[in-house]
Write a structure and sequence with these properties.
The chain is α/β, with parallel strands linked by helices and 223 residues long. It is 45% helix and 11% strand. It has a 5-stranded mixed beta sheet with strand order 3-2-1-4-5. Helix 4 packs antiparallel against helix 7, helix 6 packs across helix 7 and helix 7 packs across helix 8.
Length: 223
């Protein structure tokens, strides 16, 4: 596709993973600019990731490193679109947030969320985040459950990688402190010696648009 696009446009083209593009944006102007060990996670339809270790992008033996969405965090848990059960993505992606809202409504315990259903009658993650911002108690309960799933995966990554910074990107990063504060609350009871770490948990600069900035940088720098 790189060669074809170059032929069609007459311009140089760079191909890069979307989470790595968020990583480039963060490296350029964010909290991780001076850090040697950090992790970028994109939380949206799924969960993607990019990992810098010792100042270098870590791609792994087959180029598949930094993709934590399919870690098994709940054996036998919810079915993931990849076919496995219990993937982190199945509980902590933006799609999973919408699914959690629909379960809450189906159980009859979330009338405020039910009223937020789209014209098509389907709740998605967007309706939950809008409800959280509006102070909707039903949405807040679903949000709290969902950010707990986010924290489970982060706690495992913290124990294995011990990063300086974890950057959250993707659509839900637009929630800013509402996302960070809830995840931090869950993490306090999960990540061993969290208070003793230098770890910073931040949202990507530019929020959901950070990947676009990083894509431009990938082309500019030749990454």
């Amino acid at each position: 596709i790189k060669r074809w696009l170059e032929q069609q446009t007459g311009l140089p083209v760079a191909i890069e993973n979307d989470a790595n593009c968020v990583l480039l944006a963060e490296r350029w102007r964010g909290k991780a600019a001076e850090m040697s060990d950090f992790l970028v996670l994109t939380i949206g339809t799924g969960i993607g990731g990019g990992l810098v270790v010792g100042g270098e992008l870590w791609r792994g033996a087959a180029g598949l490193a930094g993709e934590p969405g399919h870690m098994i965090v709940a054996a036998g848990g919810p079915k993931c679109r990849c076919g496995q059960r219990g993937c982190w993505e199945a509980g902590a992606s933006g799609n999973a947030l919408g699914a959690a809202a629909r379960r809450a409504v189906a159980a009859g315990g979330a009338p405020l969320l039910a009223a937020r259903a789209t014209a098509a009658g389907r709740l998605e993650g967007r309706e939950v985040t809008e409800g959280v911002k509006a102070g909707d108690d039903d949405a807040r309960r679903v949000w709290h459950e969902w950010t707990g799933w986010v924290a489970v995966g982060l706690a495992n990554l913290i124990q294995v990688i011990d990063p300086d910074v974890i950057v959250l990107g993707g659509g839900v990063s637009a929630m800013g402190d509402l996302l960070l504060d809830s995840v931090r609350d869950h993490l306090q009871g999960m990540a061993l010696a969290l208070d003793a770490r230098r770890l910073s948990l931040v949202c990507a600069p530019g929020g959901p648009a950070a990947g676009v900035v990083g894509a431009a940088l990938a082309g500019w720098t030749g990454c």
